[in-house]
Every structure is written in structure tokens, then in C-alpha cells.
Amino acid sequence: MASGRNSHVLTCALAYAVATLGCSRWCAADELAAYRAERPVSGTIRVWASPADGWLVEHLGAGFRKAQPGVTLSEAFHGPESTFAGVYTGMADVAFMAREMRVPMESMAFEWVHHYKTFEVEIANAGLGTERLGVNLAVFVHRSNPLTRLTLKQLDGILGAEHLGGGNNIRRWGDLFEGDGWKDRPIHVYGPALDSVAALFIRRAVLQDSRKWNPRYREVATGWSEVLASLARDPAGIAYAAVLPGHEGAKSLALAANDDGPFYALSAQTVAARTYPLTRVITLALAREPGKPIEPAIKEFVRYVLSREGQAAVASDGAYIPLSAHSAQRQLQRLD
Questions:
Q1: Strand pairing partners for 150?
Q2: pLDDT (tens digit, 9 = 90+) per residue, 296-333?
Q3: What is the pTM of this model?
Q4: Cα–Cα distance between 82 and 49 in angstroms, integer?
Q5: What is the three-class DSSP state of 315?
Q6: Domain with CATH 3.40.190.10 in the chain
Q7: Residue in 99, 92, 102 with CA at minimum distance from that of residue 44
Q8: Is 41 within 8 Å of 297 (Cβ atoms)?
Q9: Contact between residue 303 and residue 149 where contact means Cβ atoms under 8 Å apart
């Protein structure tokens, strides 16, 4: 491994350690069960992944081969938009998804070929403050804004225009709170391009799959830093973005899934505990016909990823947050 990559991994791991300080209740590796093979397996498992996840996939593969020496992992690294194509074209057995599946484009492509839905297993929580597509998103306002929290219904009122879960348009700050100079101030919405993976996630999680966004949504297609920089220049702004250092002009809000709370800020702890309402997950996608078992070697590999050793690899990579023991156990139960 190149020294630059080692440096990157160390930086990510240190960032992860700082971010998760105090979250041992959810993140301690010793709360996860160690890998115990149900059976010895052999053969080749073809894994497609994004190049950004190359170190993690190779590390997981190396650990699994020690436990199951009869298995060979054939790893291929393509752009994140190509990873899932390996599964529905029959070129891969497993896709390491660095992002949410694009619906309906990718889901329909798979169903046209296989005539059943994709099987996805959660293998990590999305991370904080990374450049990978699988990053958790916070909702930000300008630091001068007195607002400190929002419900998802209120966020839908701001970002959307259809409001499938009820509610109405929220277009002025006075619709949310009282304050001198805020009553008639219009809300300016900033975010990534509406065809981005992050916007797709927000559409599902907040707009309940409505495609009708606030018509005054301001697309910032040049990255998270520019989204936050745009917000820092606009006291009337609101944005969703990854948490990045050096953007003191913006402050994040606590969010609640329900109108009466509770409200949670984005942190490694609330992500691992799945209390943060906009928690994103990283999955492995594969073809599993309903009612039929997973091919034994693939099942053992997924079980390894969900084990203490597999989640330790996730932690050491630093880009994602390991699953809690409870979350890992729920995914293991889905394999049977």
C-alpha cells in the first residue's frame, strides 16, 4: 500500500476516533460477535466496488480468506455509478454500495433481468465529514439564525412543494419562529444538484418520494464546501450538507422524526444508535431469489462483514461508522 494511502487511512481513523469519543455503548467492537463459520466454503466471490472503498474491500477480503481459505475474492473497482451494474449484468456476485440505489433506474434494471427485487444488507452506517458519497447529512442555517431545531415535516415544508405527509409550504422564517427582522424574511434553500445521490436520499427520507421541490431551490453543484460557503454568505439561508471543518458561518440543527420530538443532533453516537432521523447506511447488494437461500460462500462473506472482525475493519478505514451490535444482529437474521 502506498505511503499516501496509509496517511489517508490514518487521518480518517484518527478523525473517526475523535468523532466517536464516548460512544462505546454503540461502537465497541467487543459487543459484536466474533466470526464463527457455519460451514467451510470454497469458490470465487466476485465483488464490485468503488475505488474509494478499495482499501476497505481488500481488508475485508483478506480477513475473510484467513477464516475461509478455500474462498477466493475477485475484486473489481469501478466508479460508484457502475458498481451495482455488475450484479444485474451477472458480472458480480456482490456490489459494495457506496451510495443509495438510484430508483427507479437501477432497481428497474435489476428487476427486468431477474424478475425480483434486489437483496441489500446493511453493513455500516454512513460516516461524518468524508468526501465519499456515503456521508451523513446535517441541516444547516446561518450562525445568526436563532433556530436550533426542526421536525422532518417542517423540513419537508421548506424543501418540498407537494407535502405527501401533510403540512404546508414554509417559505418565510416567520412561519417557524418569532423574532425581530425574521417574520417576513424569505427562506433561501441551498443544496446539491437535484439529480445527485444526496438529493435522492433527501427526497426519499424527507419528501416521501415526492419529486416536487421548492421551486426556489438553489443548486450548488461544486461540492459541499461551496454549499456551506453559500449559506455562510446568506443569513436567510438553509442547506443540507456534510459536516466539514472550517465553516463557522453555518450551524447545524437538531432534527426530530415526529412533531413532538425527541430532537437529535448529528453525531457518531446518534448515527450508530439510529436515533438521528436522517441516518444513512452502506449496503452490500446481491441477487437473492425470494424464498431461496443465499449461496453459501456469499452468505459466509456477509456474515464475516457483520462480525466483530468485519466491523473492526470498517472502523479502521475511518470513512464509515460501524454497526451497533443490535443493528448487526438484525442484518444477520435476514440472511436465513
A1: 255
A2: 999 999 999 999 999 999 999 999 999 999 999 999 99
A3: 0.90
A4: 9
A5: helix
A6: 3-128+281-333, 137-265
A7: 92
A8: yes
A9: no
Residue 210 backbone dihedrals phi, psi, to 5 degrees = -70, 140
Rounded Cα distance between 130 and 80, Å, is 15
CATH code of 137-265, in short, is: 3.40.190.10
Name the residue type at position 60.
L
- What letters, b where the CB count within 10 A reaches 16 and e where it falls short, cover 5-34? eeeebeebeebbeebbeebeebbebebbee
Taking CA atoms, 117 is separated from 104, 189, 287, 305, 328, in Å, by 12, 35, 8, 22, 22
Q: At what angle do helices 3-19 and 308-317 cross, to 10 degrees?
A: 110
d(CA 54, CA 308): 20
Is residue 317 helix, strand or coil?
helix
Which parts of the chain register pLDDT below 50? Answer: 1-26
Alpha carbon of residue 119 to chain centroid: 17
Architecture label for domain 3-128+281-333? 3-Layer(aba) Sandwich (3.40)
Please give the backbone phi and psi of residue 261, each rounded to the nearest 5 degrees, phi first.
85, -165
What is the helix (H) or strand (E) element at residue 109, kind and residue range? Answer: helix 105-114
If we measure between CA atoms, which residue out of 100, 83, 80, 79 comes closest to residue 91?
Answer: 83
pLDDT in tens, 251-284: 999 999 999 999 999 999 999 999 999 999 999 9
First to last CA, the chain: 37
Contact 299, 307 (CB under 8 A): no
CA-based nearest residue to 271, from 99, 131, 132, 127: 127
